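Build the 3D complex.
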Amino acid sequence: MTDATVVMEKPASQGKAIWQQFRTHKGALFGLIVLGILIVSVVIGPFLWVPEKLRVAEAIMLKNQGPSLRFPLGTDQLGRDMLSRMMAAGKVSLAVGFVAMFIAMTVGTTIGILAGYFKRLDGPLMRLTDMFLALPLIPLLLVMVMLFRDRIASIIGPEMGAFALIVFAIGVTSWMQAARIVRGEVLALKEREYVLAARSIGAIPRRIIFRHILPNVVSPVMVAATLGIADAIITESVLSFLGLGFPPDFPTWGRLLFDGLSYMQIYPERVIWPGIAISLTVLSVNYIGDGLRDALDPRIRGR
Amino acid sequence: MLTFTLRRLLLAIPTLLLISLVIFFLVDLAPGSPASEIPLTVPAEVRAKILEAMGVNAPVYVRYGLWLKQFFYIEPLYAFDSLTGSHYAEGMQRIISYQTRSPVFDVIVQRLPQTLIVIGTAYLVGILIAVPIGIYSAYRQYSLFDQFGTLLAMIGFSVPTFFSGTLFIIIFAVWFGWFPTKYDTTLNVTDWASFWKQVRQMTLPVMTLGLANAASISRYMRSSMLENMGQDYVRTARAKGMSEQTVVLKHVLRNSMIPVVTVIALGIPSIFGGAIITENLFGVSGIGSALIGAIHANDLPMVQTLAFIFAILIVLFNLIADVLYGLLDPRIRYD
Amino acid sequence: MKLKTALLGAACAFAMAPAAFAERGSDGTVNVLYSQAPSTLNPYLSSGTKDVENASIILEGMAGFDEKGVVFPRLAESVPTVENGGISADLTTITWKLKPGLLWSDGTPVTSADAKFTYEYCTAPDGGCAQAARYEGIKSVDTPDDLTVVITFDGPKPNPYQAFVGGTSPILQKAQFEACMGAAASTCTAQNFGPIGTGPFKVVEFKTNDTVTLEANPNYRDPAKPAFAKMIVKGGGDAESAARAVMQTGEFDYAWNTQINPELQAQMMTGGKGVFVNGFGTLVERIEMNMTDPDPQWPEGERSTPKHAHPILSDINVRTALSKAIDRQILVDVGYGTAGRPTCNLVPAPEMFASDNTGCIAQDMPGAKKLLDDAGWVPGADGIREKDGKKLHILYQTSTNPVRQDFQALIKDWWTELGVDVELKNIDGSVYFGGDAGSPDTFQKFYADVEMYANNFDGTDPEPYLAQYLCNKIPGPDNQWQGENINRFCDPAYDAMVAEMGKTSDMAKRAELAKKMNDMLTKDSMVVVPLVDRGRLSAASNALGGVNLNVWDTEMWNVQDWYRVK
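Done.
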């Protein structure tokens, strides 16, 4: 009951209070900084680091080099500079990861809350979830691409079209877990005393959901979101592998990892770079999520 | 609870029928045809005849109707026959795979054991590692143990199994030579020697999958425990002088299980679905590799049957999860 | 004298050491790994290489092809030729004589009725026989006695070694498959999964798409063979893990088709547990040029059909320049290593059919640029060449495969240097090669300007392969996009040569025609741009002897001669 009163007493400074609590969380700050560095380096990096333009025959002579001043992260099997590829890949992977995760979490949380809170919707929505869980992923994606690729591409261009399609495909096929988890939590939450109390004083469902239910499901949603980003980055590489994603000369972290796999034994750095990049992203998002959860929890914030 | 369960079971029938219809049309609509398996050296006329003989060319509703009849009538009848030795299903066409030109259920029966053993063990190992780690991490939040666990878990789910599996092969099979890299499905466990062989050949795939599972379950466990540790009832319980053990393991744990149960219940059907990449990498020819092979070969009867059994399991385990919610938290009511 | 005999004997024993020690079943178990698992052991129900290869351990034909592509007798006493009277002078009949006393693995005798039955089995309506092409043009199969099979053709057959020759058309046992004719074929699971054969091994257990367990055939015609008592063929996984299981962990004796990148090949060789064996057949990785316009502005049904000629690729100078800009040796080094070599030919083998065309091997970037300059394709403001308002923009598609994506990247770089704007696209193999008329992404539909894939031909005769480029084999909406003339090449002179080859039986003349046709498609018109002659690459353990890679028949062709090196 306490959290409801705190929220109502000082609504204006809530954002500030959350930030203050968030700042004291060392892990969260670390996560924010690392993520910031990653984002800045993939956005600005390509302007600062322009790889020399080599002819194919020259580049081939320089294939599979280790890190050096000329190639800070080495070169790949065709003699392409890994640093510039990593940066180009990061832009795509981060964008895909975050947007797809955001779509999946929004859809999942919405469906989960609606199903958990409104009895009438529970049946239909959960059966829908069951259906999406049961659909075989690859045919679903193949059909989606066949139906929509050319249409989307004709509206917003091939590259943006591929991005929109990938993000949509990943989002649409990965919201189910979040939905089931949120629903389970909501089923329990809505019987808690403070929700009953709110209902008994005549609060409308919308208010109850936003004030009392939503803040309490943040924690599992955060975990799902962290997992979701890693999943989305990897799923993207699977999609491109099936020929459903970006054109083959378009690097992404997932693809670099996959391509490097067969060279892992000889040139381990080929898999280490993208592996580190993905892990760092996930790790920083996880810590930010941790901090955010603590900050959003009025019981911790008060202390 | 009983009426709820019964009602849900009844409701599951139309749901599943609808799901089967959607899957069928989806797989049928997907681009690609069983012809992709036929080498390019085979002339077009022969190709067309092969497809004709598979029955690919019949209208989609005819094939769906046939599949329904085979799945719900002929196959159960056949199973009854093989149990009792009767001959009711004699001469009836069972569900035939395009790829192998043999009954789909024979393949499933053949592959189920290794899937259940390997993937099931991996899942169990995952849960057994994850739950204690999650509990202790939450109990000692931000301790060294927690930080280390977090780091490992993050690495665990940001590296895909195709990567960790290959890494394990290189380290444990190539360098150390401790374990085989290919699973022998013909091995029969009859004595200690063959049991030991079975354990050895299971180790690498179980490790690969178990780590991935443990990573995600432990995160859910930890976050859910944390959520509950700060609750008033915990303070009350402590104030009443209960031991830490009782507080954590009885009160907090029980209330923290809902998201974890959801995740585990969602995961169990996927044991049946197998682990496509891991199965392929280690040659554990289970359901997962059958499904992906069938998808690539556009083997519609196989894909449809596997996806549908998968759907049944999902519906079933979600129902079980719902029942468990009610047991874990008696305030949850469905009536 | 005695000493001399003994010495002679010792020398003999030394020379044929493996054979002398060999006794059937004395060498234990041999483990083979197929990165694609066989789904059936009846090659008439599936023409997949993995299925045919595995079936060839169990089933045999009258004759086979050896590692040089020469026909040698298996069940037949000798190979019939015109000279020995086995083939009639007018080339309309061929007479096969079975070796006397042959037994099936179940102990019953092999007779000519089995061969006749096999023909009937594969030509039965509604059976969907996967090897029907091998029995095409046969009027009748007669069995004058138990050991004689006479095949009569519709007309003269210059290459009669089709039916009952090689792993793709073995002889089935009549008694076993009698009830499996036509539409009943797929109900015979027990038969399809456990065919009774005459080969060195017989099936003990078959787990589809997983493992074949075999044991030595007790009735195999050579009492000393096979040396192994048991053979296990495990399927599944990928080329890399298969190579590793032979070369590094030593779990398996032989791994089929271990096509991995050259550096990994070199690294695995250092393991010292095995070697890679390779051989070159007829598989050529090539770029096909689309002679028709794939522009989406045309309505469905006119896109990529001869209704509209390709705006830029119709110009032979553009095609030639694109080919000149490619350095094939680099492609080989990056993608295949020892398992590939640059080629300019569509038909790279057998030797007598291979043209001496090597003009494309050396890269000639200045020449390519000059060609385009002279033809009026000059660089525009953005560096892209154009002529009459048409830009050199190319959509380049292929299937998903790491080597092909590397090739795409390299070729894109070369073509960009040439002043061509290249857009890449990769498509999942099951869609690309699926031939689904509803999908826009199949290689037959060819909704792109150029595309890359590999193709080969069965056996040693290129005639049907070259006949794919006939005008009437162009894929289009009227034939559900099933034609084989992928690049929509159409030349009446070429059609006439195909017809002529069909009537020619003189080998030298056939070879000459084949070379001429090959040149027409490649160096004369640059419609087909061959890149790499791809060999087969498999891995064999040092502990396995007798391996002799054969690209003209199945890799399991001489499994009866395999033995354990001690």
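The mean pLDDT of chain B is 83.
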